[in-house]
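dumping this here so i dont lose it
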């Protein structure tokens, strides 16, 4: 396929705001209290994406490995902060950062350097979008795992304490809860794999097709993307729970109820009506 990309003019881009007005109308009619969030989200979407569009053009021209590394680390910091917003305050943010960064670099290097293999292998045009897709999906999986881990420990606190009283180690007492947390983090990604191509055409594949790429070639890239996302989510969730489960226990291996009772950050709780 040699069809050129169909450009979107400023007027056509402005017309896309009509789509947000539909959501705003639903919110207003049903009094959902989401109108301000929708408007602010729309403004941020325009501002952030235009900024990153110009910034990436500059970064791609430089194409220096140190700059690429710095960009990915900054993305990892932002992703870790976003994923930690769904759990009670007091949880070590460094654990989330380490989990996301490790999974991103491990899977990203394999995909960029070995599978896609651009020239040079650290090509910013390839590395940054790939790592961005990994982080975007991994942070959701990590957040779900951690949120589920908190819920499972709260629900089964009596059972965990009973196991500890019989001489179980913290890991032995919490192992089943860890498994449930891992399943929660990985299940959405696995479900996506089951219906990809049948129910939905993923973003990367759709973007390539709209850009004139042969669908058969777009499919190859999408397969790589789906498998890399699955691997990164699995690694990120596993690292998170392995590094964090001791956080729920005191120095003498007792369940720390004080940490479990801490409230979630205000931004994740319901605002006043």
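and the seq i came up w/
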């Amino acid at each position: 396929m040699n069809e050129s990309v169909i450009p979107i003019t400023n007027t056509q881009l402005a017309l896309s705001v009509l789509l947000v007005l539909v959501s705003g109308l639903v919110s207003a009619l049903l009094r959902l209290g989401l109108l301000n969030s929708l408007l602010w989200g729309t403004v941020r979407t325009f501002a952030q994406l235009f900024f990153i569009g110009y910034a990436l053009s500059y970064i791609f021209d430089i194409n220096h490995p140190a700059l690429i590394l710095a960009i990915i680390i900054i993305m990892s910091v932002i992703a870790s902060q976003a994923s930690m917003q769904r759990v009670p305050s007091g949880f070590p943010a460094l654990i989330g950062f380490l989990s996301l960064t490790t999974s991103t670099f491990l899977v990203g290097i394999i995909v960029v350097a070995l599978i896609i293999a651009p020239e040079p292998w650290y090509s910013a045009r390839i590395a940054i979008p790939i790592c961005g897709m990994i982080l975007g999906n991994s942070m959701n999986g990590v957040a779900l795992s951690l949120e589920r881990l908190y819920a499972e420990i709260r629900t089964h606190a009596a059972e965990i304490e009973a196991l500890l009283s019989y001489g179980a180690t913290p890991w032995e007492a919490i192992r089943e809860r860890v498994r449930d947390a891992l399943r929660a983090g990985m299940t959405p990604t696995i479900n996506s794999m089951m219906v990809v191509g049948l129910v939905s055409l993923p973003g990367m594949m759709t973007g390539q097709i709209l850009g004139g790429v042969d669908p058969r070639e777009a499919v190859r890239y999408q397969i790589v993307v789906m498998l890399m996302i699955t691997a990164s989510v699995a690694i990120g969730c596993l690292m998170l729970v392995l590094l964090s489960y001791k956080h729920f226990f005191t120095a003498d291996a007792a369940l720390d109820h004080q940490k479990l009772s801490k409230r979630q950050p205000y931004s994740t709780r319901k605002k006043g009506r």
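The CA atoms of residues 165 and 254 lie 9 Å apart.
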